[in-house]
Amino acid sequence: MTSLGVALLVIGAIVVVAEAHVPSLGALGGPGVLALAAGAVLAVSGLGGGLILGIVSALVLATVASCVVVLSVRKGAAVRRRRIRTGSEGIVGQLGVVRSWSEPTGNVLVEGALWRARRSPHEDDGPELHAGDQVVVERLSGLTLAVRPAEDWELVR
User: Is the Cβ–Cβ distance between 73 and 56 less than 8 Å?
Assistant: First the structure.
């Protein structure tokens, strides 16, 4: 019984630590807490400590491991709610400045990079764009941005 209890303690600890590094949102941590509790009861009672001492040690270990798992799940959920800031998904919604424009395409400076741009399909009848105008990126298709003129409320960030 003692060796099984120690094995459960080690496996439970490894799984709880893995929960902190793998965004499984509790799928690893829950069974890890149960393994720690069961391992504590089996190890302490197998060493002759009695059932009450085993249950108390299991409760203490389960409480500490549960706190670690809850903290890990909260931080993982917070990261999933964040807006994407890089890549093709991160450039959508960014403000840019028109550097040159000749209908229907032009060059736009966004986040320090010069992009080829065209008007968004639903903005074809909008105001004409000139150098220095503020635009908003609506889409990325290959290496070409789809942009529209920025509205006043978007310029105040």
Answer: no
The domain locations on the chain are 2-81, 87-155
Q: What one-character DSSP code corresponds to residue 126? A: S
Q: Which two tokens stand for residue 3?
A: 């060796």
Buried-state track 27-60, b at ≥16 Cβ within 10 A, e below 16: ebbbebbbbbbbbbbbbbbeeeeeeeebeebbee
CA-closest candidate to residue 96, choices 52, 13, 154: 154
Phi, then psi, of 50 in degrees rounded to 5: 90, 160
Identify any residues that bridge with 98 across adjacent strands, giving them in sequence order: 108
Q: What is the mean pLDDT of each run of 10 residues along the chain (157 residues)?
A: 89 89 83 92 88 90 91 84 73 90 89 90 76 90 89 76
Q: How far apart are the first and last CA of the chain?
A: 63
Architecture of the domain defined by 87-155: Beta Barrel (2.40)
Task: Report if pTM > 0.90.
Answer: no
Distance CA 77, CA 97 (A): 35
- DSSP label at 120? -
